Amino acid sequence: MTKFALALLIGATAAGAAAANTPVTFGTNWLAQAEHGGFYQAVADGTYAACGLDVTIQPGGPQVNNRALMLAGKIDFNMGGSLLEQFSAVQEGIPVVAVAASFQKEPQVILTHPGKAKNFEDLKNLKLYLGDAGYASYYQWMINAFGFTPEQRQVYTFNPAPFIADPESGMQGYLSSEPLMVEKEGGFKPDVWLLADQGYSSYSTLIETMADTIATKPEVVSCFVDGSIKGWYSYLYGDNSAANAMIKKDNPDMTDEQIAFGIEQMKAAGIVDSGEALETGIGTMTDAHIKDFFDKMVAAGVVPADLEYTKAYTLEFVNKGVGMDLKK
């Protein structure tokens, strides 16, 4: 074989391999940030491509509903929030299924002024700035489990100024965002109460897809889940510079400081890699864990007791220890 013919053969083989990669679009639930880092990592370092997927990440945002696009068949996977979204889909008869839990802990927090509360129950002595979604979900659990009251709730307009000005108040937030924002705008470091550490046991940042995708393209689902899990290990414990560059390209307002803070908080609190994930890998979900959260939501009056909640998820693609060798 001549060198020219060999070159043509190699080129054709490479082109064929590239053509064989399946196009996949993954929609996130907000603007690009460190909390999406594992997915960007798997694109940046070729992990998805190595499994035969050509993945495009489609950022969410205030005017973007990526779940609706998935329901319409425009994207393949979506970044869900907590298990309550999955339960709601079952209640509404929408065939959306969670296939992995990127976060073992929901990053929802309550912020208080330094020293104002010695323990979580002390928050019952404060007014609490909460949005409507939070009031209808985790605050109903706080009322049921700890005796918080509806009267404590103040409407949160996503402006931290009222909280910053009032030491006798608390404010909802996201572990890797609002604490830094308050520190910069208010000039003090708030105390942070992670609801997951108080028993609010929802998984979060779920990977979800349509039931039909699982039935007809299980190999694509498996590759995407495995690639995402490996991406999270590499992002948290390896060189994440290329992924962070992609994040900043998709979200020009994102800063290195905010990314570093997000990673630090996720690692310190065990948001991604803790609990059962230490044994069976990032992405882990279990029947017992989901039932525990479901029972708490039933007791709080958030979901009906007769909901067939097991339709909301599958364990087919997780709990296999994928990527654990990448943890350094």
What's the shape? globular
Number of helices: 15
User: SSE order, as H and E?
Assistant: HEHHEHEHEEEHHEHEHEEHHHHHH
Quickly count the domains.
2
Strand order of the largest sheet: 2-1-3-10-4
Major β-sheet annotation: 5 strands, mixed
Structural class: alpha/beta
Going by CATH, what is the homologous superfamily of the largest domain? Periplasmic binding protein-like II
> What proportion of the residues is helical, as a percent range?
40-55%
Separation, N- and C-terminal Cα atoms: 46 Å
- Averaging pLDDT over every residue, what do you get? 94
- CATH architecture descriptor text of the largest domain: 3-Layer(aba) Sandwich
Work out the number of β strands.
10
> Ranges with pLDDT <50 over ≥5 residues?
1-19
Percent of residues in beta strands? 15-25%
The first-level CATH class of the largest domain is given as: Alpha Beta
Protein name: Nitrate ABC transporter substrate-binding protein
InterPro entries: NMT1/THI5, SsuA/THI5
Signal peptide: 1-19
Domain SsuA/THI5-like: 34-233
Key features of this structure:
2 domains, five-stranded mixed beta sheet, alpha/beta, 10 strands, D-Maltodextrin-Binding Protein, domain 2, 328 residues, single chain, 43% helix, globular, disordered N terminus
